[in-house]
Amino acid sequence: MSQNKPRVIKDYDKLDPAIQEQIKLVYPAGFSDHLIYYFDKDGKNVSALPFETDDKYYLIRMTLSEAEQIIEDDEDYDDDGFLKDSAREEYEDKYADMDYLAGADEEEEPEDEPEEDDGDDDDY
C-alpha cells in the first residue's frame, strides 16, 4: 500500500457502483474470508474489507454476516457465492484498463491502525 494515498473507511452500500463492480473482480468468491479486524478510535473492534485503487485505499465496513448477506442478495453471484462468469467477463472488459485489478489475487493488509470518522467519505 502506498503511504501517500488517502485512506477511506466507507460502507459498501455508499460506494460508487463502479467501485463495487471492481471489488467483485478482486473478491470473486465473496468477501467473508477476506475481512480484516482492527480497533477504531473508540476502542471498538471493527471488521472491514480492504480494497485498493490507484487513488485510494479503502476499508469497507461490514460484519461477517453483512458480508455474507451482500453476496447472497447480489445477482452477480451464484447460489454458491461465486461471481458468475457473465458478470466477471462484463466487469473485466469494462475495467480492462485498470492496472490495479491485474494483481487482484495479491491483497495487502493495512500497515497502520485506521482511525474511523463519522463522515460519509471517511479518510483514516
Task: Describe, in plain words, how this protein is organized in 3D.
The protein has 124 residues and is α+β, with helices and mostly antiparallel strands. The protein has one domain (7-123). The protein is 24% helix and 19% strand. The chain is built from 3 helices and 5 strands. It has helices at residues 17-26, 64-73, 85-94; strands at residues 7-11, 36-39, 45-52, 57-61, 122-123. Strands 2-3-4-1-5 form a 5-stranded mixed β-sheet, with no helix packed on it.
Strand order of the largest sheet: 2-3-4-1-5
Oligomer: single chain
Q: Output the radius of gyration.
A: 14 Å
| Biggest beta sheet summary | 5 strands, mixed
H/E series:
EHEEEHHE
Describe the structure concisely.
With 124 residues, the protein is an alpha+beta fold.
What is the fold's blueprint, element by element?
Blueprint: E1 7-11, H1 17-26, E2 36-39, E3 45-52, E4 57-61, H2 64-73, H3 85-94, E5 122-123
Parallel strand pairs: 1-4
Antiparallel strand pairs: 1-5, 2-3, 3-4
Offer a few descriptive terms.
single chain; 124 residues; alpha+beta; five-stranded mixed β-sheet; 3 helices
